Amino acid sequence: MKGTVTPEIKPEKFSSGILREGLRKYRSYGVSRLLNEVVIPNIPDIDPKETFFYEKKPTSFKEEFIKKYRFYTLSHLSFKSPFHTDCPENNTAHLLHFVPHKKKTDFLFVTLHGWMSNRAGFMSEICRRLAKSGINACLFSLPYHRERTPAGKRSGSLFFTLDPFRTFNAYRQAVIDLMVVADHFEERGFRLGGAGISLGALIFNTLMGFDSRYEIGVSIVGGGDISRIVWEGLATRFVRKFIQSFGVSAKHFKMLSEHQENFLKEKRRTEEIPKTKCFWFLIDPITYASKRDVLFINGRFDPIIPRKAVLEFKESYGNPPIIWIPADHFTIIFRRYIIRRTVKFLMERSKLSA
Q: Is there a contact between 155 and 136 (Cβ–Cβ < 8 Å)?
């Protein structure tokens, strides 16, 4: 199978002038009128079963040696993503693999960085500590980030744009690529888990709910309920400003919340993902939430991930343990503490003492 499984979507190129240049185009869709019915116009008819579908087949992983350290060896893995986009650089997935010299468990943990991340410091430190303790770990590059960044663009700048289809497909591609990673390492006898921070946590939360092979996880300043995060979160204010230019208000958000509640009730009743015009429901962590072995680490004063988006999602996940740190979303001063608690949780759950 080639390309995406949904009808082809031509993503528009994002620019700083899109707020001006795109208004006539978007208004021609009748967005204000249709939002009153909580319907997004002119989108393809997406089959929920195909959201994260890909043709499961042997995938060639290219491995390159980087450096041998005292307790582990660092190598670079890459493979062709089964989800094709219009950016050649983005169509190859990349991982840094931290291979312990003395393997002490059959688990491998995959870590996911945050939005716009270019440096790997935070999550790679978690990988280093795991590897020193005898656990295989990988740092995965999200679509449009790091090595996957198109020439002339900033890392991650094409993941979130005002083109909703590009963002939707970038999120889908991340989950699909991580399922390919699971295919590869499962064949080699590994069990899987991982950790994500910020955007990486949102994606990992969806992944854990959808793919049960990821057994253990840590969500760092993440949550669920994308609609609430967009409407109430600080990082997505440019999207909120854009849709408010159409007259969208808190009234519409309330209607959307009621629509999502009905969507989730139908999902629980039928145990199937219902069809919906609100296509972002199909990638939302809360849609796939079930009782899982996960630890939440969140900032008590986080303006990016609203507290309610954390608590609602936590409840739908079976109320796993949560650590509230006295910080906002940018938790630099608690870096060491977060890394230590993340590594401790993953080691304990993989049957190793900290």
A: no
**Which segments of the chain does DSSP mark as H helices, in order?**
18-21, 23-27, 31-35, 121-132, 164-187, 199-210, 226-232, 237-244, 250-270, 307-316, 335-349
> DSSP secondary-structure letter at 57?
-
Q: What is the tens place of the pLDDT at every residue in 185-202?
A: 999 999 999 999 999 999
Query: With the C-alpha atoms ordered 218, 333, 76, 59, is the resulting torsion angle positive or negative?
Result: positive
3-state class of 149 per DSSP?
coil
Lowest pLDDT segment from 30-39, 45-54, 68-77, 188-197: 30-39
- Whether 1 shows a pLDDT value over 70: the answer reads no
Where in the chain are the domains?
18-349
Q: Where are the alpha helices (DSSP H) in 101-163?
A: 121-132
Tokens 């921070």 belong to residue: 197
Longest dimension (CA), the chain: 63
Packed helices 121-132 and 335-349: angle between N→C axes, nearest 10 degrees: 40
pLDDT digits (tens, 9 = 90+) for 103-118: 999 999 999 998 878 7
pTM value > 0.85: no
Q: How far is CA 96 from the centre of its chain?
A: 18
Can you give the length of the chain in residues?
354
> With 70 as the cut, is the pLDDT of residue 253 above it?
no
What tokens were used for 117?
């991340």
**With contact defined as beta carbons under 8 Å apart, do 163 and 185 qualify?**
no
Q: Residue 257: its pLDDT value, please?
A: 78
User: Mean per-residue pLDDT for 231-246?
Assistant: 56
Ranges assigned E (strand) in 87-186:
92-100, 107-112, 136-140
Does CATH number 3.30.230.10 belong to domain 18-349?
no
